[in-house]
């Protein structure tokens, strides 16, 4: 029999997963707590166990999304071999994780400062991760001696442009294809 604390944690995770799916598909700015509760088939009081207000709920759901995405991305990177494959896997997995976000969600995110700050913080973390992967490749002799921080900043800038729709508008590439191209340009540009 499942312990009460385990059940509560499982239920909380399920609610956050459903909340994230709802927000990614439909955005969040136009949704009321009543609408969210109805769509998740729970009470408003249940939502208040997750966060004290709609704004806090949106922020918490955004954090939950990025934690889940990071775990998925890092699991894929851990299974990859070699620096080039690890960077390609990382950027492709990030693109796949973010590709599920609707345009409406991205617009709402851009206009809601606390959630946008979560996104921006995660982009900075991703840039640092790309820098680490480049440094590992340089140390292993797979990449030429490059300024890893610059290469990571280049990747982060493109990641933001991809997610804001700028790359799609200018090139016609969907997010997944844009991340694959970024990985190819980055890894070929720094190869020995």
Automatic annotation (TrEMBL):
Sorted UniProt keywords: DNA-binding, Transcription, Transcription regulation
Domain HTH tetR-type: start-end pairs: 9-69
DNA-binding region per Swiss-Prot/TrEMBL record: 32-51
GO molecular-function terms, A-Z: DNA-binding transcription factor activity; transcription cis-regulatory region binding
Name assigned to this protein: TetR/AcrR family transcriptional regulator
């Amino acid at each position: 029999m499942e312990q009460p604390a385990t059940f509560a944690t499982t239920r909380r995770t399920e609610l956050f997963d459903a909340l994230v799916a709802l927000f990614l598909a439909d955005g969040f700015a136009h949704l009321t707590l009543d609408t969210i509760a109805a769509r998740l088939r729970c009470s408003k009081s249940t939502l208040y166990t997750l966060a004290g207000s709609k704004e806090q709920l949106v922020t918490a759901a955004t954090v939950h999304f990025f934690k889940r995405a990071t775990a998925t991305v890092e699991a894929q990177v851990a299974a990859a071999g070699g620096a080039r494959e690890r960077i390609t896997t990382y950027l492709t997995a990030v693109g796949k994780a973010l590709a599920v976000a609707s345009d409406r969600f991205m617009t709402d995110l851009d206009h809601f400062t606390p959630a946008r700050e979560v996104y921006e913080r995660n982009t900075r973390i991703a840039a640092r991760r790309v820098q680490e992967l480049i440094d590992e490749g340089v140390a292993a002799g797979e990449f030429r001696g490059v300024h890893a921080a610059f290469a990571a900043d280049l990747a982060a800038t493109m990641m933001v442009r991809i997610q804001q729709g700028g790359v799609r508008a200018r090139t016609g590439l969907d997010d997944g294809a844009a991340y694959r191209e970024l990985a190819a340009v980055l890894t070929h540009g720094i190869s020995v």
